[in-house]
Design goal:
By secondary structure, the protein is mainly β. The chain folds into 3 domains: 1-331, no CATH class; 333-447; 452-536 and 545-608, no CATH class. It has a 6-stranded antiparallel β-barrel. The chain has a 6-stranded antiparallel barrel with strand order 16-17-18-22-21-19. Strand 23 and strand 24 (349-356) form a beta hairpin. The radius of gyration is 31 Å and the shape is elongated.
Length: 610
Amino acid sequence: MKHIFVVVGAIITLLFQYGCGSDENVMETTVTPESMEEIDQTGISTVNGNVELRNMYEDEVLSLPKNSILELVTVIEGSAKEKIPVRFRGIRDFGFGFPLYECELVDETLDGLGGIAQGMSGSPVGPAGRVMGALAYGDSFSQTPQRFWVTAIDAMETAIDHQTFGNVLEELSAAPSGILSSTYEPVKTPMLITGIRPHRIKQLSKQLNDIRFESIEMYSHIPSVSTGSTHVFDGDLGAGDMIGVAIVTGDIVNSIGYGTVTQIIDDKFIAFGHPMFGAGKSSLPVYRAIVDGIVSNLQVSYKSASATGKPIGTITKDLTPAIIGELGPVPDMIPIFISYHPSNFDKPVKKNHEVAFGQESMIPIVAALTMDAIKMETSPGTLICEVELEFKETDRDFSRSFMSISADPFFDLFFNIDSIVSGFTNFLENNAGKATLEEITITITEYPQVFHADIIEVTGPDQIKQGNSATYTIELLPHWSTANDKRTITKEITLNVPNNFHLGHTSLRVSGAGESITGDDLFFEDFRFDFDFDDSDQELPKNLDELIQQEEDKQTELSTIKVVLRPPTDESFGFNPFDEVPDGSIEQEVALDGFVVTGSKNKTIEILSQ
């Protein structure tokens, strides 16, 4: 059995995912199994109408002779379905918990188009008028004749009534909205996305490979009927039709996956023959789609597909043998309002998107790609962003702002927003209370100047008498792009020494809040907001309101200059400006608004008696 798993790992690549559909209004006649024409074993034939297929279960497939010619029903161009001859090679047990049927193409025409392609996953396979399962797995870099593997219809049908972990937890009134994705090891899946520049594909793939996506490839969109395809559906969804699942829709970013319907059962349908994320409980909108042909690729070909119209239903379950959808009701989505104001624009550019519940990890991607698409260049500068979250469980909103200086603000925006959102929506991180996002507003302002200043000098008296005050001048060196004629910036701060302050030599430390950023940051010397991690004595939040308050208290202003004069008897002077300050210290802050302040200086001070 061990060798079987090795072989499976080497030859089977999960393919053929995602799709989007549209409502197109062409009158279609129903084609029953009895009226379907005899298949030509050497060619593809078109079905001008809906396809009705009768299930063929494993006990019947066991008696199917090897090398029997079967039909694969799928869309190659437009929305018309094609019957493609394939050959049955046998039943295989790869340890999935259900059998896979091995088949191969026998049609040279499809081989010439690129063979088995992503987007065909879910295409029904079986003898004429029957469906024994869905095309689900195939080889990369395969040569003619191409082999593929079919998920048994038995397992797909069983998935309809399967109780997911998310449904169980929801019955306990404790489930997060949407997918309980953190409970599972996600199945790697290609993401189809718009609004992404080519060089970002490789960068984002590195970040997302360990989450749920194998790679970011291809492009997808949801054009309206008037600007997209002129094809209009006017028939019920049927076996072999292209459908798809939208994770994100909006003005710039659309993340959509294409696949094929295997079978319709009452008001439900089963599709794909494999999972999307293996997330169990799901809440994703489904569209109908048309195909603009197959794009041949050396590794694996794929369908070039587009979606039109409105959603036609909801994906409610995402399981190993299939995704399960319900026709009719459309799921709610999380609205995201993004306002981006680059310095070379007279006013902000506003873009709107929607993200599916359970896919909150896409929110930082939407924000970063929206900024990237509007900016149209990679350049250094200063980014100021405010994120506002509204929740269904409380009237209390959460807001956090951060300032970033970077050679490429794209990933600063990505990681900061991800940190903010995941603190509430990650099922394993949030221990306080259910947090269902109702609306997100992201306001971004970017400047080409680098608003960074480093503390270079502290001047003032070397001695202070008890009960007296002393004024110190802090000199900072800003980046040349923000420097004035004097080249430096000065701030003054006055310390009042109490009558009972300890006598002797001590150290006055002046430090910038940005100094807490360590050299371990992924993006060299980029500056992002940071937190005070010394929270060992902090009480854990017990509900969402307390969590919101705690997250608000964590925010640190990077423009802050912190001044600390510790008692001379204290020997444990730390070097982190956010270390706990001992009792008896004199502590003050002054802000250099609009700048990230870094660096630190120490000055020895002698405390004298009155």
